[in-house]
Amino acid sequence: MECRVVVDTLRVFSSSRGRFKLFLFCIVLCLCGYLLYSYFDYISAARSLTHERQRAAFDNQHMSRGLLNNNDADAAGEEWDEVNGEVSEDEAASDRSKGPLSKKFPQAIIIGVKKGGTRALLEYLRLHPDIAAASGPEPHFFNRNYDKGLEWYRSLMPKSTEHQLTIEKTPGYFISKEAPARIHAMSKSMKLIVVVREPVTRAISDYTQILNKNPGMPSFESMTFKNMSAGGIDTEWSAIQIGLYAKHLMNWIQYFPLKQLLVVSGDRLVTDPADEVGRVQDFLGVRKLITEKNFFFDPDKGFYCLKKAEEDYSVSHCLGKTKGRTHPNIMPEVIQKLKQFYKPSNKIFYQMVGQDFGWDE
């Protein structure tokens, strides 16, 4: 705009030779300024494009490990919506004891572990008339959403009567450094349930879940070892780190006595669910209504399902098709190295909970 004003002004005086030269000089000056402006604008755009390409390359390079370390990529609530026959909150409320309904803070929480069998346990407990189990995605309140406040947390709980026990599950709590103190601050009498599984099998199951969604992931073996030739296990990879149960449990017993924490075998929850669910009912102090008569083995799925009524197979509850995935073939030497790696931690864990799970046999 300023160049145009200069040009218009000088055009009036362009009759003389000197003024005409000045007129041409101003035009050239304006053109040079425009070219310089265009050049620097081009350089800026080129640098921005290069930066974006470098950032994209960096993100792609680290995406695989980032996905596998995202604990609760934790499967967006660990596939909560893929439970066949899950009871809705309205249906569950209609089955509960009569009385005014309100949303209460949970009196029990399933705190872990990821890929241990927490979803199966919650679905088994959901059908108990004395238990109100939270539905929907895992709250992740004490490890991710604590800043949203306790009232936000309570809003996620199901409606229940004053005689019912409310329970939620978020497997990510078990490995969280902050969760034990935060839960203790809310309720010192909280009952905690942790479902554990043989650590190597659990790690492979964790990897399989992510691999199913991202087929281009590196192999389990390459993720396990920092250097394949050296054989150093990458303990920073969450799939490996979660299985160090003794380390994580130590954080919890600083705030809660062991009598308030029940360790459930995820392996036996698959082979003998009635026995493990019976232990959970005793621990929660509810009537022992879910027994072996409520379970039946589904040969197509390869695991047990739960009948709402003892003789009624038409109302059954089975986990979705993504549960019980076929694991990839892992080199036997890798599995053996991992078993040796976990052995010291397992022994300490057995001593802490007073229970030998037989993982090292």
Which range does the strand content fall in? 5-15%
Strand sequence of the main sheet, in spatial order? 4-6-3-7-10
Radius of gyration: 31 Å
CATH architecture: 3-Layer(aba) Sandwich
CATH class reads Alpha Beta
Q: Please tell me what the overall shape is.
A: globular
Q: SSE order, as H and E?
A: HHHEHEEHEHEEHEHHEEHHEHHEEEH
User: Count of DSSP helices?
Assistant: 14
Q: What share of the residues lie within helices?
A: 40-55%
User: Care to count the β-strands?
Assistant: 13
What do we call the CATH topology? Rossmann fold
Which class of secondary structure composition applies to the elements?
Answer: alpha/beta
* Domain count: 1
What separation lies between the terminal Cα atoms?
85 Å
Overall mean pLDDT stands at 80
The CATH homology group name:
P-loop containing nucleotide triphosphate hydrolases
The biggest sheet amounts to: 5 strands, parallel
Low-confidence stretches: 1-7, 9-15, 42-64, 71-94
Give structural attributes:
disulfide bond, single chain, 4-stranded antiparallel sheet, 5-stranded parallel sheet, transferase, alpha/beta, 361 residues, membrane, disordered N terminus, Sulfotransferase, P-loop_NTPase, Rossmann fold, 14 helices
